[in-house]
From TrEMBL, chains A, B:
Membrane-crossing residue ranges in chain numbering: none
A Pfam family per the record: TetR_N
Cell membrane keyword on record: no
Species for this entry: Antribacter soli
Gene3D superfamilies, per the entry: Tetracycline Repressor, domain 2 (1.10.357.10)
HTH tetR-type domain residues: 26-86
InterPro entries reported for this sequence: BetI_C, Homeodomain-like_sf, HTH_TetR, Tet_transcr_reg_TetR-rel_C_sf
Superkingdom of this protein's organism: Bacteria
Record-given protein name: TetR/AcrR family transcriptional regulator
Alphabetized UniProt keyword annotations: DNA-binding, Repressor, Transcription, Transcription regulation
Disordered: annotated segments: 1-20
One Gene Ontology molecular-function label: DNA binding
DNA sequence: GCAAATACCTACCGAGTGGTAGGCGACAAC
DNA sequence: GTTGTCGCCTACCACTCGGTAGGTATTTGC
C-alpha cells in the first residue's frame, strides 16, 4: 500500500479553512508539528507556549493558529502524527513475522536514539492523568489498547505452556508497560552522566521478558 | 529520638526574614505546603500558579511569597516535607525488622490511599528530567539513592543464593524502581473507571519480587 | 507596655499567555 | 489572467504569570 504522507496523516477532515490543499501549507504544518514535539517534550503541554513553538518553526504565532486553531488541536495533531509513525514501524515488524514482544522491545530500542519522543510521551502521559487534560482520552485509550493486546499475547502463550509458572497474563502485561514507562524517566535522567552509564531500556525490558516467558 | 516537627523539617536556615519563629507563621507554612502538594500534583510545577495555591491556602499571593521567597523555594519545601514524612514511615518499618523490599512495597501500599502524593511524584519526576528544572537535582539524587540501595540489597541476597538464576542485581534494582513509577501512571488513569478495576500497584510489585527472589 | 520582629495586605510591575480581527500577497484552478 | 482560496502577517485583546514596593496589623520577648 502507498505510504500515507505526513500531511494526510496529520490533517483530519478539513475544519474551518480547508487546510492541506497547498503544498507550502502542508510542509509548514509538518515543520510546526516537529517543533511542537520538541517543545512539549521539553516542558510539557502546559509549559510550552505557542509563541515559542511558532518562533522555532519560523512563523508568527497567529500564523501557527491558522494551521491549528487552538493549542489543544496542535497537541492532538502531534499525538496523531507520532502514533502513525510509531505504529507503522511496529506493524511492519509484525508483518515480517516478528514476535509481538520482540517488536515491542524494538520500539524501545528505536526510541533510545530519539530522546525528544521519549520526553514527549513521558511528559504527556503523566500530565494527562488529569481527566481535564486534552490528551487524557488519548492516553487512556492507548493504555487500554496496550494492556489488552499484551494480555492477549500472554494468554495465548500460557495456553501453549510458554509462560513461567505463577505468571498471571493480565498482571504481567501491565507490568511490561509500566516497566517501559518507568525506565524512560531513569533513562532521561541518565543523559546527564557519561554515556557508558546510560540506562539501557531495551536490555531491562528483555530481562523482564526472559523472566516471564520460557 | 524526638520526632522532628513539620516546621523544623520544612524551614531551612533562616533566609531573609527569620521564618518559623511565630506559631502562626509555622502553621500557615504547613498549610501552604499541603495546598502546594495538591496543586503541583494536579498540573505539575509549570502548570501550577502561586495565586491559585495561595487562594486555596487562604492567603494573598504576596503573603505566600513572604513565607517562600520564590516558586522554586516552595517546590523545594514541598519535596523536603514529603521526603521527611515518607522516609520516616520507611525507617520505622525497617527498624522494626521489616525486609527492605517489603518495606518498599508498604510505601506503595500506603500511597494507594494518597492520590495527591502519587500525582505529585509522577508529575514532578518526569518534569524534572530537564536539567534546568528546579527539582532536577532532587530527583537525580533520589533515583541514585534508590537504585544504589536496592542494588546493595539484591547483591547481598545473591551472595546467599536468594536470587532467581540469571537475575542481575543492578538491572533488577532499576527495574523495581521503574515498575513502581510506571504503575503510578496506570493507577492514576484507572481512577476514572470502577473501583473494582483499579490497578493494584502493590500486587504488581510483589509479583515482580516473587519472580526475582527465591 | 514597649520595641522589634513577623505576618500579611493592597497596589503595582513588566513580561508572557492563548486567541481574535483584519489585512495583504502568493498561489492554483479555470 | 482573473478570481476565490490559502498562507501568514501586524496589531491588538483580556488575562495570567512570578515578583516587588511599601504599608499596616499582629505577635513576641523583654
Amino acid at each position: 500500500m502507498p505510504a500515507k504522507t505526513t500531511a494526510e496523516a496529520v490533517n483530519g477532515p478539513a475544519v474551518g479553512p480547508a487546510r492541506g490543499r497547498y503544498a507550502k501549507g502542508r510542509a509548514k504544518r509538518s515543520e510546526i508539528i516537529e517543533t511542537a514535539i520538541l517543545a512539549f517534550a521539553e516542558v510539557g503541554y502546559h509549559g510550552a507556549s505557542l509563541r515559542d513553538i511558532s518562533a522555532r518553526a519560523g512563523i508568527s504565532h497567529p500564523g501557527l493558529l491558522h494551521h491549528f486553531p487552538t493549542k489543544a488541536a496542535l497537541l492532538e495533531a502531534v499525538l496523531e502524527y507520532r502514533d502513525t509513525v510509531d505504529g507503522e514501524a511496529f506493524r511492519e515488524d509484525r508483518a515480517r513475522g516478528t514476535d509481538y514482544f520482540e517488536a515491542l522491545v524494538r520500539i524501545v530500542e528505536r526510541n533510545q536514539v530519539r530522546r525528544p519522543l521519549v520526553e514527549l510521551f513521558a511528559a504527556l502521559s503523566t500530565e494527562a492523568t488529569t481527566p481535564e487534560h486534552p490528551a487524557h482520552e488519548f492516553f487512556s485509550r492507548r493504555y487500554d489498547r496496550l494492556v489488552r493486546e499484551s494480555t492477549e499475547q500472554l494468554t495465548e502463550r500460557a495456553a501453549g505452556g510458554g509462560l513461567a509458572p505463577g505468571v498471571e497474563p493480565a498482571q504481567a502485561a501491565r507490568s511490561i508497560i509500566a516497566l517501559m514507562d518507568g525506565l524512560q524517566v531513569q533513562w532521561l535522567l541518565s543523559f546527564d552522566g557519561p554515556r557508558s552509564e546510560r540506562v539501557d531500556m531495551a536490555a531491562h525490558v528483555r530481562a523482564y521478558l526472559a523472566l516471564i516467558l520460557r
